[in-house]
Specification:
One of its GO terms (biological process) is protein O-linked glycosylation via N-acetyl-galactosamine. Glycosyltransferase which elongates the O-linked glucose attached to EGF-like repeats in the extracellular domain of Notch proteins by catalyzing the addition of xylose. It is found in: Membrane. The structure is a single chain. By secondary structure, the chain is an alpha/beta fold. The chain has 14 helices and 11 strands. Helices cover 41% and strands 16% of the residues. The chain is globular and about 65 Å long. The strands form 3 sheets. A 7-stranded mixed β-sheet has the order 5-4-3-6-9-8-10, with helices on both faces. A two-stranded antiparallel ribbon has the order 1-2. A two-stranded antiparallel ribbon has the order 7-11.
Length: 370
């Protein structure tokens, strides 16, 4: 009888250890901001765990210095225009721009109320190698690499370059956090999936993600997981080792990290980071053609250099929009400026560029019968 109780006791202890281990591993990577109302789902085949929750706010962050102020405002305007959820912006800006952001966004907040909230952070680099970090690629762009440590109160965010324009609702992109498995800390699109076009397989002199490399202009960042991953500890040693071979700065460092940790990346479709590379030689992003461009990324100054009139047309329509005005004017101007633009391969993707704005703005802002 005593032997029977001993076996039962040992069995119960083993069960408790297994349950403790199971619970610890589920909670380890959950988005902490979601803990109160999260629903955990398991896929027994892949042992993958997800966190889901109705979106109460979307956190969007970017870094801006020097002459990118107006471009940043258009990024904010576009995300507000297409969102049906409250947006919270975390803006890392230099000393010259912080007051300008505060004045402008407070004016917009009087119009939009709680649908717009923001905080403005200083540019902060480690004192050691500060100048190298500040001027790596474009000025202060490398700030993004240190964000997990700079804002410990934030659990997750959408990081976007200032030269991006939303054409779809940010909350839909935010929804990809719920599709991360237990190992993924970030989501990005490939630089390109054509080895004859993608920069990395042709020119890179450093390790990079997969066969084609990643473009970091749009990056979902689970900051909680990145802190557990010790992300910031990687970046300085990599910069010092490869600083002569990383022309794209912070993007190259991100590629080097994920070269060694490929499973930590959730791949996004090219429609979420649509650049001139996806259209200038013909249609290279079928998903954007079929379902619509979601984020337009004007990298290499495509919004301003007069080489890509279709990109300039979209940007101009957003630039002319006044917050609180009639959103239908944005759609009308997009169509008008695209029609007036010189013919180009990217202009041939007009339907892909307008697919989401037509659907969202027509459905979201229905004019009342009078």
């Amino acid at each position: 009888m005593r032997k029977h109780y001993t076996k039962l006791f040992l069995f119960l202890c083993l069960c408790c250890i297994i349950l403790l281990f199971y619970a610890t591993n589920i909670s380890k990577y959950s988005l902490t901001a979601y803990k109160n109302n999260a629903t955990l789902r398991s896929n027994s085949r892949d042992n993958v765990y997800y966190v889901t929750k109705n979106v109460d706010r979307v956190v969007i962050s970017f870094v801006v210095c020097d002459s990118r102020f107006n471009e940043s405002l258009n990024l904010i305007k576009s995300s507000l225009l297409f969102s049906s959820s409250p947006l919270y912006f975390i803006i890392f800006a230099d000393d010259k721009l912080r007051n300008n952001f505060s004045i402008t966004l407070n004016k917009w907040k009087k119009i939009l109320g709680d649908n717009l909230k923001f905080e403005i952070q200083r540019i902060v680099f480690p004192e050691e190698h500060k100048e190298e970090w500040m001027n790596l690629f474009s000025k202060c762009a490398a700030q993004r690499l240190f964000i997990p440590k700079l804002i410990p109160h934030v659990d997750a965010m959408l990081y976007v370059d200032t030269d991006t324009i939303f054409l779809g609702p940010p909350e839909q992109l935010w929804g990809f956090f719920s599709q991360f498995n237990a190992y993924q800390i970030s989501a990005m699109s490939l630089e390109d999936d054509n080895p004859n076009v993608s920069w990395y397989p042709r020119f890179a002199k450093h390790p990079f993600y997969g066969k084609y490399g990643l473009n970091s202009g749009v990056m979902l960042m689970n900051l909680t997981r990145m802190r557990e991953f010790a992300w910031v500890d990687y970046v300085t040693p990599i910069m010092l080792k490869y600083k002569l071979y990383i022309p794209w700065g912070d993007q190259d460092i991100i590629n080097i990290i994920f070269h060694y940790h490929e499973k930590a990346v959730y791949l996004l479709s090219c429609r979420y980071n649509y650049r001139t590379d996806q259209c200038m030689y013909g249609d290279a992003c079928a998903d954007a053609t079929n379902r619509g461009v979601f984020i337009l990324h004007g990298s290499r100054r495509a919004f301003h250099n007069h080489k890509q009139p279709a990109f300039e047309a979209i940007y101009r329509a957003i630039d002319e929009y006044k917050v609180g005005g009639d959103p239908s004017e944005v759609l009308n101007n997009m169509e008008k400026y695209l029609d007036a633009a010189p013919e180009s391969n990217c202009g041939n993707q007009k339907n892909g560029l307008l697919k989401l704005p037509r659907r969202i703005l027509n459905n979201m802002y229905v004019k009342p019968n009078r």
